[in-house]
Amino acid sequence: MRTVSLLLGMVAAGLFCACGRVEPPSANIYPDYADGIVIPCNIAPLNFLMADGRTHRVRVEACNSLGNLLGSHTYNRCKKLIFKESDWRDMLASATGGFLRIVVDDTASRLWRISSDSIDPYLVYRLGPHDQNTGGRLQVYERNITDFSHRCLMDNLQTENNCMNCHSLGADAKMVFHVREAFAGTVITDGKGASLKISVPARYGFRLSYPAWSPNGRYIAFATTRIAPVQFVNPHRTQDLMPDVAAWIVLYDTRQNRLFSCPALTDTAFCFSFPTWAPDGKSLYFCRTPHMEVWNLPQEREKECLAEFRYDLFRIDFDADSETFGEPEMVYSPLGGNFGGAAGDSVNRSASIPSASPDGKFLFVSTVMMGSFPSQNQGDLILLQWDSTEDGRAYLREVHTPGFNSPDADRRGVWSASGKWFVFTSKRESGAQSLLYLAHFDGSAPDEQKISKPFVLPQKQPDHYIWNTRSYTFPVFSGKPLPFDGKTYKDIVEQPLSEPDMMFFDTSGMVSGSVDATSGASQAVSSANFGGH
Description:
Helices cover 9% and strands 37% of the residues. By secondary structure, the protein is mainly beta. The strands form nine sheets. Strands 22, 23, 24, 25, 26 and 27 form a six-stranded mixed sheet that branches. The longest helix is centred in the first third of the chain and has 17 residues, at 2-18. The model is unreliable at 4-26, 337-345 and 513-533 (pLDDT under 50).
């Protein structure tokens, strides 16, 4: 692990000093807040320690955009720099639009540029084992990233160590998440303290996963994916999880407590995964692959089939007034080849976890080796941009972002409300744990400059990630605190189940005749009212 190497380097540096050896000064700091990073004007202090474990003289200069010095703070005999909160705020306020210069021993320095674009104040994320496919302690935290305050929203120690996953936030602090095992169900909160727990009756043969709120807060798109573990021989490689049955896309209506879909999204010839809404709510993105039966094959054929189990990115139009769907259209494939959508530069990959920018012009999509489950130890985060040909045909193209992805897994890009920032998970620190990284986004800049150098989520104690053994996953931005906490979590999870209206599905799990097979139109059904607008 790279953090172990850092520790060994610190010990070695101490031994050299003890033996009287003189080492040259170094500007290496940990975490590696690199030269040229762009930070929000309201971010928490970027505390750091000297990577060689020795003391250095550190001067922090606040400068305007022309490089004129506005003020400075000097820290003598510094091994660990924890900024005084008031000093940090003053420097950010005075140098917004400029930069901070970090000068070590009067020679080595780096620049942190301060953007006038503020960042959403809260991040909600899951904290769990570094191998996401194993059981163990799971918690969901809400972190104020303008300071270091945080609170635990959920803890599975309260609920018999069950799995809890896939939290998603909607407008006005609405939230949805799944709980499994003894407390199985999907919990929906309305942002005002009320909650509902729903579960699809067992006779329909599927359960809900991968939720995504519509922009107006009325609908939640779900995949009905079921997954099964496939253990690889390499013990250092995280298990890859693949869908084992036909997985569909369904919509839940929070006003009328009902599920509906259309034939194009429930076609058993395909597996569907990871729906996400366009920002105008008029279309859905999702991942799709032809259904393959891979679980009862000879072992040598099973491995071959798994290697072919790869998803493309699709889009389908949705009319909320009539609740009708269009025809699915493939818009991107990391498989390469000749087809209607845009071909990825890296062929033979699989698409996972799309995320559209607030202005609808860009998308992030994760690419993995196979399947769509994102816990694999390899994968890149690809930026796509809507463009048009000379004849006006719209298409998605890959944006060239050199130096952004690491050799380890980078995935799940999530946009801030302004679209100026995004957060993503990466294993670049250790190769094992996923950590959260932030980066600035400028859609008007040339391709190579649209994304700034990423930096890890700041922690109050700069050695936090050295000792950390857990993974940060499923990050979501929030503009306000959520209306519940760990004290009320168990009550929410233990509430009675509500069965959504399933009139659009027959008992075999197929879409029923009450959905028009041509237009995908569904009939309105009045039921228990909850949430929505």
